[in-house]
Amino acid sequence: MSRDEVLVLDPIGCAGHGLCAELLPEWITLDEWGYPILRPEAIPPELLPHARRAVAACPKLALRLRALSAS
Amino acid sequence: MTLPRLLLGTQDGRALTHAEHVGVHGPLPAGDVSAALAAAGLRGRGGAAFPTARKLQAVAATAAAGRHRPVVLVNGAEGEPMSAKDRTLCARTPHLVLDGAQAAAAAIGARRVTVALPRAATDALDAMRTAVHERPGGGPAITVTAVPVAYLAGEESALIRHLDGGPLKPTVVPPRPAERGLGRRPTLVQNPETLAHVGLVARHGAAWFREAGTAADPGSVLVSLAGDVVAPGVYEVDRRMRLAELTGMPAGRGGPRAVLVGGYHGTWLGPDELAGLTLAAEDLAAHGATLAAGVIAVLGPKSCPVRELANVAGWLAAQSAGQCGPCANGLPAIATRLAAVADGRAPSGSAADLDRWTRLITGRGACHLPDGAARLVRSGLRAFAPEVAEHARRGPCAACRRPPVLRVASRVAA
């Protein structure tokens, strides 16, 4: 069973540490104030391990993966 | 079809008593208002224009699925300085608002109603408290609460957090109030005007309601007319009305320099766009505007739109809760740069910076404060391009020294 997953950010929790953009530059860039900008599309399978690392690395637990739909 | 409906029988300066109210509108019928509301097509008058019947359904559905009885929150915080319609309605016809709250509460199985009004709106608070004591038994328990005068007081998640003892700051949604609101209960949040319409639909039905307004947005609507107009105030109108008729000014020569439709989250329309324009949603949408909570602010030919835009952007930046990085950083950056633009000392590349910042903050906050601010600024820069260029060349204009037309503080001291 595979699931499409997207990255979602809690904008209140996020403090702009920027670790996520270090770990997943293909999907996350930082704006000029240091806050992440996420691509809205589903994460490609080959990037999922990196996305999970980015989620785990967030010191504020503000980043998570959300399943779009079961398939 | 005759107007007014909501303000029928009201007089300046005092509220209708319960006896007067029943004399004007008749008693509130018992029974479930849900079906009539769905057929009436009433949309929320707080800004988002969400179908009221669907909101009731959502709250009733989550309440049925859970253990908590739902509650009704009347959001009369009206945090925008130029908006006066909800406090006017509550000050003059509080029982109609409470009738709507009572009918909605009955429809979703709620027994408690909380009415939140701005601390500064003493007339509305007094009228509402008196009305609560006057009402006959059998209705829900009603609490009237004064809340701070601030933009975020009207943001429903911030209001709920504040009423539950927390700071006046938005929370991340979901969960929406319908799922988990006041005291973690499923909460129906409606603004006073919306509920007053509910009180009328309960009496007169859907067909009557649809005699006013358009097919997409039926019913009458309250607008707060402000700025450079002959007669500012709160008016109950039909959305088929022309903007020129409402403002009492012709489009074109001798007319306004610009009209802000939808308040401080709204859209600036220039003279070219005003000709023939009505308040109908489809008319406004053609210009990227919505009526939102009904604020219409007019800038006359003697005002400086660049200065006004900078002032309002500064106020919006000050309203940020500072919780979300893009809003906390972006709104002050935008406001500071707009002030520099008005002063004629903006660095080159300011147009590109403002374009980038307004895009950058959109959709990246927990609430819609940054989105609305971006919309206001972008539409202003588009509508006022000649004045912006003029300020860049010559610095502040003569009109910059005039007192601002657009209020950036509450009319009544808090």
Automatic annotation (TrEMBL), chain A:
Pfam families: Fer4_15 (PF13459)
Official protein name in the record: Ferredoxin
Organism the protein comes from: Paraconexibacter antarcticus
High-level lineage: Bacteria, Bacillati, Actinomycetota, Thermoleophilia, Solirubrobacterales
TrEMBL record, chain B:
Domain (NADH-ubiquinone oxidoreductase 51kDa subunit iron-sulphur binding) ranges: 309-391
A Pfam family hit: Complex1_51K
Cofactors that this protein relies on: [4Fe-4S] cluster; FMN
Record keywords, A-Z: 4Fe-4S, Flavoprotein, FMN, Iron, Iron-sulfur, Metal-binding
The keyword Iron belongs to this UniProt entry's keyword annotation: yes
Domain NADH-ubiquinone oxidoreductase 51kDa subunit FMN-binding: 39-198
Domain of life the protein comes from: Bacteria
InterPro entries hit by this protein: ComplexI_51kDa_subunit, Nuo51_FMN-bd, Nuo51_FMN-bd_sf, Nuop51_4Fe4S-bd, Nuop51_4Fe4S-bd_sf
Keyword Repeat: no
PANTHER family in the record: NADH DEHYDROGENASE [UBIQUINONE] FLAVOPROTEIN 1, MITOCHONDRIAL, NADH-UBIQUINONE OXIDOREDUCTASE FLAVOPROTEIN 1 NDUFV1
Protein family (similarity comment): Belongs to the complex I 51 kDa subunit family.
Descriptive protein name: NADH:ubiquinone oxidoreductase subunit F (NADH-binding)
Gene source species: Paraconexibacter antarcticus
